[in-house]
Amino acid sequence: MPCCLAAPHALLRTLRSATRPPDAVSAVNLELVTLTEDRAVITWHTGVSSEGEVVYGTHPAHLNRTASEGRDTAHHHVELTDLEPGQTYYYQARSHGSAATPTPLHLVKGNAVGTSLYGFGSHGGPYSFTTPQPPPGRHLLSIALCNDLHLGETTAGLVTGVPLMRGISQRLGLGPYPEIMGRALVEEAHRRGARQLLAAGDISAGGAPRDLTEARHLLDGFGTHGQDYFVVRGNHDRRGRQEAQDQQGLEEGRGDTFLDAFPAHGGPGGESAYFARDLGGLRIIGLDTYEKRGNGAGSGGLSDEQLAWFRADVRAHKDQPTVVFGHHPLTVRNSPFPVTSGQRLNRRQARTILDAYAAAPGVFLHHAGHTHRNKRTVLPQARHVTLQEVGAVKEYPGGFCLLRIHTGGYALNYYKASGGPAREWSERSRRVAAGLWPQYALGRSVRDRNSVVVRDLSGITPTVTRRPALRGPA
Predict the structure, then answer these.
(1) What pLDDT was estimated at residue 245?
(2) Residue 4: band (very low, low, confident or very high) from pLDDT cuts 50, 70, 90
(3) What does the alpha-carbon distance between residue 17 and residue 76 come to, in Å, rounded to a whole number?
(4) Residues sharing a CB contact under 8 Å with residue 267, sequence separation 6 or more, in sequence order
């Protein structure tokens, strides 16, 4: 580095060291992850194990309430409870005398720490958020929305031909990160009260039978496939065995490793990976958005047969409350990174699906993965449908979205996995894309990962099912 640049940086470090208490720690990457009507989840990082607390209140000069973790850690995760709906709160997160500073979202002009810009420009806040009103009516059920587990992957963020995307690997001696994050997903979804779980593709890193078998074992810890949880194919879950059979003339098996692990449930017949199911008045439609030959690249695609089935099903149940999930999103907007056609569903087919939604007032949510980011989109063609992209399970921010359905509306709330090994990997994997990954994956605003919609969902009458006990690894 030229000396003309090195000197100011060295001087700045010296000044900071001189003004910081000798036992202080560096508290960074502050994020307001989850915001509901009565709670908030706040995370930050200190690099070394230290105490962590959040002081908060309804006036910036009177932070008279405290929440802490009760133990020292480098990966801080504090939950504020018993908040009042519609109330503005001010808070500051601290570790060992140092106030935590926000994750910078300057590339997207975003806000990682609040619902207003209060506190920006200061060193450590306090920052501000306003709790939403809850969805009206009685709570009916909660569903975990997740995607991109990538069982079998060993390097996160690796993209061939993109210099910044060299990837991050797990530390030596620690378990495979997709398994750590997958188990944390199951545990956290149970803890947050999810009755069902929808996994929107890229369950494996490449469709290998052993990885899909491990994914099945892991998700079986949540409950019963086809009853408690549902899975659709992503581009990484491609038909690897089918292509090998075409080349070798083999006849054994279905020719589809994904369906070997996750047999069709509620589909239109045959060995399809798309389906529809009724859950006590709520209709669930799962789409196979990579129903084509390929190596996992290129845009998503539905067969003509699947698209015709989907349009007919939506038309036949146009007034029934419906959630659709599939791997590729219908649109990709507001990305700080270059967007290619491979990040979305085929444009013509996406337009056809949106046209079907426009004539089906019962559809209220379309959940997608693939982009590995949190992003809420509402399009003019179908304003009654929320298009929700959810961040990947397997890497930063490392979690899932909880859909809470009430008789008068619904809420979407993103939760990071809170277990210790999961927190550690999530922090390590934020270094993907030369450390720019949070600018893309977290969501540019709290609303991208937490929202409330008012609408009549009183027709849903969930059946009572026994919650399975958590199952550990074999």
Answers:
(1) 44
(2) very low
(3) 23
(4) 273, 274, 275, 276
- Strand-pairing partners, residue 411, are 404, 452
Q: What is the share, in percent, of the chain residues with pLDDT greater than 70?
A: 86
Q: Tokens 């940086």 label which residue? A: 9
Mean of pLDDT over the chain: 88
- The burial class, CB within 10 Å (0-12 / 13-18 / 19+), for 49 is middle
Model confidence, pTM: 0.90
> Average pLDDT of 83-96?
97
Q: What is the pLDDT of residue 165?
A: 66
Q: Where are the alpha helices (DSSP H) in 199-303?
A: 209-219, 240-248, 257-261
DSSP letters for 154-206: -EET--TT-TT---EEPPTTSPPHHHHHHHHHHHHHHHTT-SEEEEES--BSS
What's the DSSP call for residue 295? S
Structure-token match 């219908």, residue found: 330
pLDDT at 164: 57
Structure tokens at 82: 């018993």
Q: Which two tokens stand for residue 6?
A: 């090195």
Residue 341 pLDDT > 90: no
Contact 64, 54 (CB under 8 A): no
Contact between 300 and 344 under an 8 Å Cβ cutoff? The reply is yes
Dihedral of alpha carbons 353, 337, 35, 391, sign: positive
Say which residue the tokens 């060993």 belong to: 154
Distance set, CA 349 to CA 65, 252, 300, 410 (Å) = 51, 33, 9, 27
